[in-house]
Amino acid sequence: MEKDVKVKERMLLVLNVVYHGRIAAQVAKDLHRSRSWACQWLKRYDRQGLDGLKDIPKSGRPTELPEEIEYEIKTILTDSNQGWTTKQVEELITKESGIRYHSNHIYRILRRWGLKQKVPRKVHINTASAEEKDEFKKGQTNICGHSTRKEEKERLYHSITG
Q: pTM score, two decimals?
C-alpha cells in the first residue's frame, strides 16, 4: 500500500489513462495538473513501471544537523502554542546543536519540516467611529471640485429656487 500522496496521484493518472482509456489531458485537468506533467509521468511509467512513479532521491549536500537533534527541535517547535520567527528558530538550532545557519536556509529548513514562519498580521486602521465616517463623507468634494456637503447643496438649491 503506497503512502506517498504524490505517488498515489501519479498512479491515479496511470490507472485512468492506461487501464480506463481516458485522455491524458482530461485526466490531468481533473487532477488540476498540466498536460506536460501527465506526459512526463506516463513516459516514466512506460519505461520503468510502477517504480517510475516514485520520486528519485535528489542529490546535494547532506544536512549537518543530526537526526536526533532535528527531531528535538521539530518537537519543540510543533509543541509550542506560539509562532516562531526565523531568527528564533536560528537561535534554537544554534543553542541545541552548535550549528549556525543563514536565515534564508532556516526558512528552507522550516518548509522542509512542513512548518511556516510566524508572519505579523495586518493592523486595521479603520477605527473611526460612525459619526467620524459620516462627517468625512459629508465633507467630500466631487471630481469638479464642488463640495458634496448636504447643507451647501440645500443652500444653493434654495438660493436658486427662491
A: 0.43
Considering the domain boundaries, does residue 129 fall inside one?
Answer: no
With respect to residue 16, please indicate whether it lies within any of the assigned structural domains.
Answer: yes
Q: Which amino acid is at 84?
A: W
pLDDT in tens, 23-43: 999 999 999 999 999 999 999
Check whether residue 10 and residue 49 sit in a common domain.
yes
Q: Which residues, in sequence order, are CB contacts of 44 under 8 Å at separation 6+?
A: 52, 53
Phi, psi (deg, nearest 5) at residue 117: -80, 160
Enclosing domain of residue 21: 5-53
Spatial neighbors of 64 by CB under 8 A, at least 6 apart, are: 99
Burial class of residue 143 in the structure, from the number of CB atoms within 10 Å of its CB (0-12 exposed, 13-18 middle, 19+ buried): exposed
C-alpha–C-alpha distance, residues 107 and 76, integer Å: 17
